[in-house]
Design a protein that fits this description.
Elements (H helix, E strand, L loop, with lengths): L12 H18 L3 H31 L6 H45 L5 H4 L1 H15 L1 H21 L6
Helix pairs in contact: 1-3, 2-3, 2-6, 3-5, 3-6
């Protein structure tokens, strides 16, 4: 038995950035058309409540103050309400499609890497089996990365509208 210390296998910020970039590149390559569509749907979903609030304010102002046509604003309010109902569903569908495509691409890459192994010796090594299982679990979690990215994007888009103006 050797008393040599085990090597330090911690992941630092550089490795984390490289892994995140590799995951985002895999997602982008797996669904090159759906990712920009998903981002556009996310931004539109985040902007819909703000548009609804502004249109509601304008309709109320028109009804209580200055007299003028309200039909155009009311139609805009109907369109914003309809968008508020359907855009999240469309974004969820796009997110699920991207997650499935990225998961399939990641699984394909993982199996291709496993096929490049010569012989069975590596597959009998417990450390290699652990790494292979971790990689397989990571591939299965790619849809969660897409969900996290979409949620972060939506939150970032809503942030300026939800924060009150500062009065300093």
């Amino acid at each position: 038995m050797s008393d040599a210390p085990a090597p330090d296998r911690r992941i630092g910020p550089r490795e984390l950035r490289a892994s995140a970039a590799a995951a985002m590149a895999l997602i982008g390559r797996a669904a090159p058309v759906r990712v920009p569509l998903f981002l556009a749907l996310t931004v539109a979903t985040a902007a819909t409540p703000v548009a609804t609030a502004w249109l509601t304010k304008l309709v109320i102002d028109r009804l209580t103050g200055a007299h003028g046509p309200v039909a155009g604003l009311a139609l805009g309010l109907v369109a914003a309400g309809t968008a508020a109902a359907f855009l999240p569903l469309a974004a969820q569908y796009a997110r699920a499609q991207i997650g499935r495509a990225a998961g399939a691409a990641g699984t394909d890459r993982l199996f291709a890497a496993a096929e490049r192994q010569v012989g069975l010796r590596a597959f009998e090594d417990p450390a290699f089996q652990d790494r292979l299982r971790l990689a397989q679990q990571a591939v299965q979690r790619l849809p969660e990365i897409v969900d996290g990215f979409g949620g972060g994007s939506a939150g970032f888009c809503r942030w300026p509208a939800s924060s009150p103006p500062s009065r300093f």
